[in-house]
Specification:
Helix content is 42%, strand content 20%. It is an alpha+beta fold and 381 residues long. The protein has 2 domains: 2-163, no CATH class; 174-194 and 242-380, Nucleotidyltransferase, domain 5. Bound molecules: zinc ion.
Length: 381
Amino acid sequence: MLKSFEIKLITSNNNKNILNKTFMEFNSACNYISEYAFNNKIYDKYFLQTFIYSDLRDNFNLSAQLTVRAIDNVCKSYIIDKKVMHIFNEYSALVEDNRSLNFKNNNIVSISALNGRIKLNYISRRKNKINNKREDINIPHNRNNEYYIIKRKNDFYIEIPYNTENKEIKDPLNVIGVDLGIVNVAVDSTGRKYTGNKIKKVRNRYKNLRSKLQRAGTKSAKRHLRKLSKKESRFQKDTDHIISKEIVSKAEGTSSILVMEDLTNIGKKTVVNKKYRYMHNSWSFYQLKSFILYKAQEKGITVVFINPAYTSQECPVCHYINKNNRYNRDNFKCLKCGYKNEADYVASLNIKNRVAVNLPIVAGIIYDRLICPAASSHALA
Ligand SMILES: [Zn+2]
């Protein structure tokens, strides 16, 4: 998975000046290349280099390396669309590579700029949103050989694209089922509930505020509403980060694979109930799921998605399926064997057990460690 990592440069006025001029020079070179490429219909960087490299060196004040980057930058932009000539504005990203940009000791980065290289400090510590502690930035290894220097509000940043490694755990020892829900944000098959009255309280507070503002309907109320929704989505994001981190850490610590419901095709199924309809349209649910996925990928933890049919109605002990097993929203009692537990926890057990049907090889390794036997496949028919 390609992600990007951003660090902020510490720049004096003089350095800002040099960087500004470099941006302008780089992007006007890009425009020159773009015009040539478009008029001659040449979009291959090696051909372009043969035709205009010496022109560029004569007319622009860029290093050899930045000249090559500019050509490459233009060619990449034409991969997507060749119908119109591409125009770069003066602050489009400045592209550097492993030769034109190097990280040195003591938080110094050396960058190829106009009239030579400049050395800049960068901010090397940042606050961890999850525990509020300041920690060192670990710059990821950049295998793509490309750095983007970008400008925002008179500050400069280096954006580093990198691939996260997707290593597989060879011998998972355990399985953790995770049920994402409305009442509880998530419940896992170890019995941990990720809910917290804090979330409910905050949500209610926002809800009340929102309806007050909506009733007011004034201009300033509308402005406040927009602010509020930004705040709310930030809160949601932080919450989703905390929950996904805890789930993934647990999986890492117990050598587990994670199992979740695959709700992507649920619209076609007849078992669609309120929960799935809600989740299918819920941004927060999507966000939490994708946070779990990418954090798991980074740690090399396998995530398996299973068919969600009847996960809330099946008994995890005797596998009897009946919608009356879940006699109310929060509680489950099997009509056949009498097994009793909280409904969301029961669902997480069913999710966990279904990995045996979906992934027999993994299940073979962990089958004997499962608390409950695998779910019968008739539930999935
Ligand atoms: Zn039962």
